[in-house]
Amino acid sequence: MKILNELKEIKLVIVEMEVNLGKEKRKGLTLCAKDENGYYPLNTAHDGRPILMNKENLIKID
Questions:
Q1: In this structure, is the dihedral angle defined by the CA atoms of residues 60, 35, 14 and 42, taken in order, positive or negative?
Q2: Dihedral (C-alpha) 17, 33, 38, 49: value to the nearest 10 degrees?
Q3: Other CB atoms within 10 Å distance of the CB of residue 13
Q4: What gap in Å lies between CA 41 and CA 52, rounded to an integer?
Q5: pLDDT 10s per residue in the chain (62 long)?
Q6: Are the C-beta atoms of 40 and 18 separated by less than 8 Å?
Q7: Radius of gyration of the chain from Cα atoms?
Q8: Is the pTM of this model over 0.85?
Q9: Cβ neighbours of 51 (radius 10 Å)
Q10: Contact 19, 35 (CB under 8 A)
Q11: Which helix (H) or strand (E) holds 50?
């Protein structure tokens, strides 16, 4: 395994996120990568499972 390059415009942040699980709403801390476009969750807010950083998961900045 090797590092190809470092993304300098990405910052790691912890956010409090609210998610809908059926009729229930849950809040939790979530590790995110942040850039000028928004937040990319790196784990799920409801059970903490890791997820890949991809554009489909982007939460846009208002």
A1: positive
A2: -40
A3: 10
A4: 8
A5: 898 998 889 999 999 988 888 898 888 888 899 999 999 998 876 677 777 778 888 889 87
A6: no
A7: 13
A8: no
A9: 12
A10: no
A11: none
> Tokens at residue 57, please?
């998961």
d(CA 45, CA 31): 9
- Structure-block tokens of residue 52: 């890949």
Find the helix or strand (DSSP H, E) in which 40 lies: strand 38-41
| The length of the chain, given as a count of residues | 62
State the first-to-last Cα distance of the chain, in angstroms, to the nearest integer.
37
Backbone dihedral angles phi then psi of residue 14, each to the nearest 5 degrees: -110, 125
Task: Determine the 3-state secondary structure of 48 from DSSP.
Answer: coil
